[in-house]
Design brief:
- This protein is an alpha+beta fold.
- It has helices at residues 2-43, 47-56, 59-66, 72-79, 88-97, 103-111, 120-126, 136-145, 151-159, 168-175, 184-193, 199-207, 262-277, 291-305, 307-313, 345-353, 368-371, 385-394, 398-406, and strands at residues 219-220, 235-236, 246-248, 259-261, 282-286, 327-332, 359-361, 379-382.
- Helix 8 (136-145) crosses helix 9 (151-159).
- The protein starts with a helix and ends with a helix.
- The model has no long low-confidence stretch (mean pLDDT 93).
- The structure holds zinc ion.
- Zinc ion (ZN) binds at residues 286, 322, 327, 329, 379.
């Protein structure tokens, strides 16, 4: 009995001790909160504001607040979505130094350790959707060197790693959809020479090499691109070049003997068969041409029609797409003469559907200055369905597409 009651007594003492301890902790906590509340009331904070402060700030932040005067803006700092605990003194320091600073800017700058004087430019920078934190020093530096530069331009220039003095035309060029950074010097030079041109025209023309006259600055065509090879007045193929995939065309699909690249031929057969289902009849008029054939054609154009005509309608040997086996001139049963093809219902169908088979109208209307050829409603080039569809939808020439999507890739 005695031992039992001793045990019970010890247990009771322990129990009372715990109660007392919990009570004391509770009391002191209550007392601290109570004291802080009283101090906040004294500083002028409302009940609602005090509730927000107590819910959000740490003991360290509380001390900072209690040692300061009432400031409605401190509540805005605390309520900011990016507010971080234990940073209150830094926020307040910055706030006092630059009292026109936006609260969200203060929180952002302090959170990211950006120790810069507050300016309208700095605010515009950090609020720009393309702002990159790691570039901040470069932005500010660029701004220092180009005080008239606007923020959007600065961010664009720095993000593109461009080391050029600021100008509106520079920014407009960089903003262009088909801007290629490696061509920047040529864009600038061309824009200077042609100030009347808009930035989109500058980019299009340079991407198409128009800062060089046709048949100057000639390079070898990249034959590794296969059915995406670009052959034009700037890119040539060797005299010996022939597709290793040439097949003979059936007379069902061509008016005369002809050869085409196998994939090109398969695609054309499909297109011609589908057209026939709509009672539209198309046939190839001219397909693969060897270098010597092209040479003969060009020379005969030259002799019969003169230089301008020959240059506008015929390629010099080594510069004809027909030598790749990927191009063919299409005629209609209604009109064997290619010159009349545009007026036939066949043309209307081919123009709207060729891309679904992988063909593009290679020398479109109004793009003569890019392609270097007069509008040829009959000349189609195989590039595969995906690329043809993109070119059709974006309304680009193959020159423009090649520069932006294929070259150096
Ligand atoms: Zn042709």
């Amino acid at each position: 009995m005695a031992r039992k009651s001793k045990k019970r007594r010890r247990r009771r003492t322990l129990f009372l001790g715990i109660i007392l301890l919990v009570g004391l902790i509770g009391y002191f906590t209550y007392d601290i909160i109570n004291n802080n509340q009283k101090k906040l009331v004294k500083l002028g904070y409302s009940d609602e504001e005090i509730r927000i402060i107590i819910d959000h700030v740490s003991i360290k932040d509380m001390k900072v607040l209690l040692n300061d005067e009432y400031q409605e803006d401190y509540l805005e700092i605390i309520k900011d979505n990016n507010f971080k605990q234990n940073m209150m003194d830094s926020y307040i320091d910055y706030y006092k130094k630059y009292n026109d600073a936006l609260i969200k800017d203060i929180v952002y700058l302090i959170n990211n350790n950006i120790d810069e004087p507050y300016t309208k430019t700095l605010s515009e920078m950090i609020n720009n959707s393309d702002f990159t934190l790691s570039n901040i020093d470069k932005y500010l530096n660029y701004h220092k060197q180009n005080p008239k530069a606007d923020t959007v331009g600065i961010i664009l220039i720095v993000n593109n790693n461009i080391d050029k003095p600021y100008s509106n035309s520079l920014v407009n060029i960089i903003k262009e959809t088909y801007f290629i950074s490696s061509k920047l010097d040529r864009y600038i030079k061309y824009q200077d020479k042609n100030p009347q041109l808009k930035s989109n025209e500058v980019v299009t023309n340079i991407n198409s090499n128009l800062d060089y006259n046709f048949y100057t600055n000639i390079q070898n065509a990249d034959v590794s691109k296969k059915h995406l090879i670009l052959v034009n007045k700037y890119y040539k193929i060797d005299k010996e070049y022939t597709s290793d995939n040439l097949v003979s065309m059936d007379l069902k699909y061509t008016y005369n003997f002809g050869e085409l690249d196998k994939d090109t031929y398969e695609a054309f057969k499909k297109m011609a068969d589908d057209a026939a289902k709509k009672e539209l009849y198309i046939k190839g008029r001219s397909a693969y041409r060897a270098y010597n054939t092209q040479s003969y054609i060009y020379t005969s154009y030259l002799n019969n029609y003169g230089y301008v005509w020959a240059e506008n309608y015929s390629a010099r040997p080594g510069h004809s797409e027909h030598q790749t086996g990927l191009a063919l001139d299409i005629g209609s049963n209604n009109s064997e003469d290619l010159g009349n093809f545009e007026a036939t219902p066949e043309f209307k169908w081919v123009k709207d559907n060729a891309h679904k088979y992988g063909f593009i109208l290679r020398y479109p209307k109004d793009k003569e200055y890019i392609t270097g050829y007069s509008y040829e409603p009959w000349h189609y080039r195989y590039v595969g369905i995906d690329v043809a569809t993109k070119i059709y939808e974006l309304n680009l020439t193959f020159e423009e597409y090649y520069a932006f999507f294929l070259e150096n890739k």
